[in-house]
Design a protein that fits this description.
alpha+beta; 28% helix
Length: 214
């Protein structure tokens, strides 16, 4: 009898331990969060709590497992040449914009963009239509050139290196450029503060992912 109770207790403790272990999710470290934020800001000019034109609220950052998501909303002003898509989105009042970043391997960054249309006036249900905007995968360990080139009105992040950017089909390019339009520019002679901070973000990324020489 005592042996049966001891076995039962032991099984209960083992089960509880497994439940606790199974329920624990690995969280992003502070350094990795900082790195992800730097990548998002360097390539997209995006930061938590920043307001963009034609958006009804600032970007809001959330951490979901090993992924960081940035979400904002805007009014639906889209029109499509495809009648079927127009039929799905005609009654949508809002569009939810989501930008995701994760790192499946060291110095490899997966960046995913989504556009989702609301069910009527709902601000909770965005299942009417998922437009998407694709996924890119940056292989920064392959980059031998990683710089920001500022010109009046634009700040271009330029990457060069073998297979430095790929899509989900495995098709890669050796050169890639992302353009951001800083909203805090003042004159052709003065580099805006956001561009200077993007350069610092690139410096941080290059310390972690120095790439390779040409």
């Amino acid at each position: 009898m005592r042996q049966a109770k001891a076995l039962t207790l032991r099984h209960a403790v083992t089960l509880s331990t497994l439940v606790l272990l199974g329920g624990c999710k690995q969280e992003l470290s502070k350094d990795k969060i900082e790195l992800f934020e730097a990548v998002m800001f360097a390539f997209n000019g995006m930061e938590n709590n920043t307001q963009e034109k034609y958006r009804s609220q600032p970007w809001k950052r959330t951490i979901v497992g090993q992924t960081i998501e940035y979400v904002t909303f805007g009014d639906n002003s889209y029109g499509f040449s495809d009648d079927k898509i127009n039929a799905k989105t005609r009654d949508s009042s809002f569009v939810r914009y989501t930008e995701k970043i994760s790192s499946p391997e060291t110095c490899v960054f997966r960046m995913e963009s989504l556009k989702e249309f609301s069910k009527g006036n709902s601000k909770e249900d965005f299942s009417a239509y998922d437009m998407g905007r694709g996924t890119i995968i940056l292989h920064l360990m392959n980059a031998y050139s990683f710089e920001m080139q500022y010109e009046y009105h634009t700040a271009n992040v330029h990457l060069q290196g073998p297979g430095v950017v790929c899509d989900l089909k495995g098709e890669c390019a050796n050169e890639w450029e992302q353009t951001v339009y800083p909203e805090d520019y003042r004159s052709p002679d003065d580099k805006p503060a956001s561009a200077i901070r993007r350069e610092k973000a690139i410096e941080l990324i290059k310390k972690v992912c120095p790439g390779k020489p040409y």
